[in-house]
Amino acid sequence: MESLQPISGPWALIAMSLKVTIIFGVVVLVVAYSTLAERRVSAWIQDRRGPNRVGPFGLLQPVADGIKNLLKEETLPATASKAFFVLAPMFVLVPSLVTFAVIPIAAPLPTPAGIVDMIIADVPIGILYVLAFSSLAVYGVVLGGWASNNKYAFLGGLRASAQMVSYEVALGLSLITVLMMSGNVTLTEVVWQQQQLGMWFAFPLSLAFILFVISAFAETNRLPFDMPEAESELVTGYHTEYSAMKFSAFMISEFGHMVTASALMATLFLGGWDLPGTWDDAFWHEGQLIRGFTQDGVIVLANPAWWKTVLTFGGFAIKTSFFMLLYIWIRWTLPRFRYDQVMALGWKVMLPTALAYAMLIGGTILVLDEVGIRWGFSYGLALTAVSGVATAGFIFFLDRGRTIIGAAGQSRQKVSITGISQPATAGD
Amino acid sequence: MAISVKVMNRPEPEDTSYLRAALSGMALTFRHLVNPSKVTQQYPEEPTDLSPRWRGTHRMEVHADGRPKCVACGLCPTVCPANCIRLVGGEDDQGNRYPIVYEIDEFRCIFCGMCQEVCPVEAIHVGQHFENAEYTRSRFVYDLDRLMEQDHPTTLLWDPSDPSSE
User: Fold this and answer.
1) Which domain holds residue B63?
2) Torsions phi, psi of A150, nearest 5?
3) How many CB pairs lie under 8 A apart between chains A and B?
4) In this predicted model, what pLDDT tens digit does every residue of A2-49 receive, in sequence order?
5) pLDDT, tens digit, 9 for 90 and up, residues A211-224
6) Domain-located, residue B42
7) ipTM above 0.95?
8) Is B25 within 8 Å of A333 when comparing Cβ atoms?
9) How far is A404 from chain B, CA to nearest CA, in Å?
10) Residue A103 near residue A118 (C-beta atoms within 8 A)
């Protein structure tokens, strides 16, 4: 079975160059078209049709937008800090696009020269790399807000820093449960363990899934957490002073973050490129591409095929687009939180819940291992039951606790006047 | 599409829940998302339906032999509040008055329709038409030939079943 060896030599270099080019191109294309998707879906939600004039079904609209942004005048505020003002869009754009490098997008592809992994860089630090780079993006936002020398931009930058820091905590804590389950931080291993468990982590780690989705919305500055932009309060927040391609860089990075976060959610909680069944499972185990183990622990070799790669990539694309649609759908449904609500939700609800849930899952894993249940479907079912109770409790608490009180709730604070004492008259 | 006012029955704060409200809101937006009937009018493909009383681009009515119905009485330049009509009248050898020059500056015109109301021979009309974009400003001064070429429906300034407003 020589063809089951990983690709090596000059062919590996060619394969890597092709992968980098194609995946980067596809990500940029998806980012461009997600701007169109946002406009079309928002239009449909509002009973409009959306942009459909440029090309068939408006499909060339991103091209027209790109040309427009390239040709528009670049403004540079006289009082801005020029170097940082120019640097800020790059600081935002680069992290949003490089994070995709560690996300596996499909099952390994067999070629005559060997097997090609459908991931740019299967680095051993996987998720940590994603977290590090997605945290870097806030520097660009803060830098842009500060360098503009504009009070609205500055407020937007300040809000961004506070919000990103707050929700990064909950994001990291909800990730801990995933890492406890997979036992490794590489995303290929996360996908592999979901294949071995026989179910996607969205079920055994349902509460972590919910917390992660909420935190990811806050991290990408999307509504209802778009405090840094908040166009009704802060003009457009941190990118108020930006125009033309610099503004476009901020928009591209926002959508780039959306795409990356969607892909990450799909990988961590919906099995990544995994499709139901074990026919597509593949993982490098001690130099061999395996599909799994028998009851006795004997290795079952995987048999990769090009159609499996295509099918699993389709699955990955569908899962990612589901989250993209969720992003857009929620943006055009929910109004923006107040700033104190964002902070209250982050620190008073998300953080303690994530912490308690990490302990709960850790304890459950410990008990299940002590009892001796094998890593498999029944293991997942037990965790699903525990998580289901935790999720139900969390939802009940959120529902009853009125953590986020709407405008109607403020009427409770009205002062009721029970009696008015008569003022003393002059004659008394 | 008729515009109506919806009276909101705001719930008591004790009965509100952000989570349930958010989910019902998402259900509502999803219903609109998949709803195939959209309100956008696809304008260049689907013509807009104008009101019968829409007052737009002018047109000059013509006789069967191609002469303008205008008798150069001078009422329309007199009544025109925007002073956009230029009329030079003439008289042929039978004593019939006719316009030598009849120009309307569509940029100055405020489309009040008083020229049509005042015209004794129902010659000049405002029309149910608005697509009159041009490349130069000078093209917006419509001369007599151009006014006679217009073939869009004319405006009904009054109810056709009661033309003399009785």
Assistant:
1) 56-149
2) -135, 135
3) 66
4) 456 777 778 888 888 888 898 889 888 998 899 899 999 999 998 888
5) 999 888 888 888 78
6) no
7) no
8) yes
9) 6
10) no
